[in-house]
Amino acid sequence: FSSRGNTSDLKALFDFVRSCLAPVGAGGSPVLLVDDLSLLLSLGAAPVQTLGLCPLPCPGWVGSQPGAQGCLGLSFQGNIVVLVHSNEDSEDEENKLVVNSLCHHSDLILWAEGLATGFCKDVHGQIKIIKRSSLELTGEQDHVQIYQYKIQEKNVTFFAPGLSAAVL
């Protein structure tokens, strides 16, 4: 990436994504899966460029209508699934900006994290499922569910906190 403020650096990628998200015809809606959006930041893209890959409403940047068009002109009717690596202890302000923006515009957030108590042989971590009640500032509470998990050779076992097989 030659300059952090130049969106043309990612133009080929955005054009490719836009062509893939073209309407698919009767009965189908596209799904955009982004395996690791934070990778673009580590390659030198600015947060605005990185967020431009996801067609989220960005009224402060472009003046688009919510749900209509993204920061760099991408728009479609469908779903977006984005993986972003984050660490609360990190001092990476650009990554925090991307994570906070995605969380603010998402109606469902899956937040996987390690255990606050540290390593455990029978519980590998926990996942928070946050279903946003509204993307507007209505004062409604988000619905949060927390499950713990254990990763096994060919599957993952989920259970309520404190109910692992080792405890019972």
Automatic annotation (TrEMBL):
Entry protein name: Elongator complex protein 6
One Pfam family of this protein, by short name?
ELP6
The alphabetized list of GO BP terms reads:
tRNA wobble uridine modification
Question: What are the GO cellular component annotations?
Answer: elongator holoenzyme complex
The taxonomy runs: Eukaryota, Metazoa, Chordata, Craniata, Vertebrata
Q: Which InterPro entries match?
A: ELP6 (IPR018627), P-loop_NTPase (IPR027417)
> What Gene3D superfamilies does the database record attribute to this sequence?
P-loop containing nucleotide triphosphate hydrolases (3.40.50.300)
- Pathway terms, separated by semicolons: tRNA modification; 5-methoxycarbonylmethyl-2-thiouridine-tRNA biosynthesis
Species name for this entry?
A: Merops nubicus
UniProt family annotation = Belongs to the ELP6 family.
